[in-house]
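Hi all, long-time lurker, first post. I run a small reading group and we've been trying to get comfortable going from sequence to structure in the token notation. Rather than ask abstract questions, I figured I'd post a concrete chain and ask someone more experienced to write out its structure so we can walk through it together at our next meeting. Sequence below, copied exactly:
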Amino acid sequence: MNKQITVSAVSAAAAITLAAGGWLGWTRYQDVHTTSDVVYAYDTSSPTIVAQHATAVFTGTVLEDTGPRTVEGLSSDTYRVRVDQVLKGVASGEVVITQSTDGEVDRYTVGRTYMWATNPNHRVEDGVAQLYDAAPRPANDAAVTTWTEAVARAG
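-- Answer (accepted) --
Happy to help. Here is the structure in token form:
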């Protein structure tokens, strides 16, 4: 009889411990995950689709490669870029553009002009983030025409 009470007590204690641990784990998980950013997956090879997701699309000349830094938890390359021609949104003067370096990425070349499709980073001092794939896209006449049409289709 005494052995039966001991087994029952140990079983009850184990069940209470497991239940309390599960509840505490869930509440901590839930607290951490109640607020999150929405991440969109889309075809980055389509200028029309990218233009829909970008707040600004423009041509810009790389003035300076300002080097690597961490932006919003991601390793990034940063560039100082002069805005040349705006196709969508509001961009002017010089902007800081970040590009995530997760995976293999091609770097932008100082003095060259590229197509940029960007969204602002959460912190103003982090500049804007390049959306359009990892490969630099030169801003030749054909690219500007393609992006102008893409911005018009995107609305």
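A couple of things your group might point at:
The two ends are 79 Å apart (CA to CA).
The chain is about 35% helix and 30% strand.
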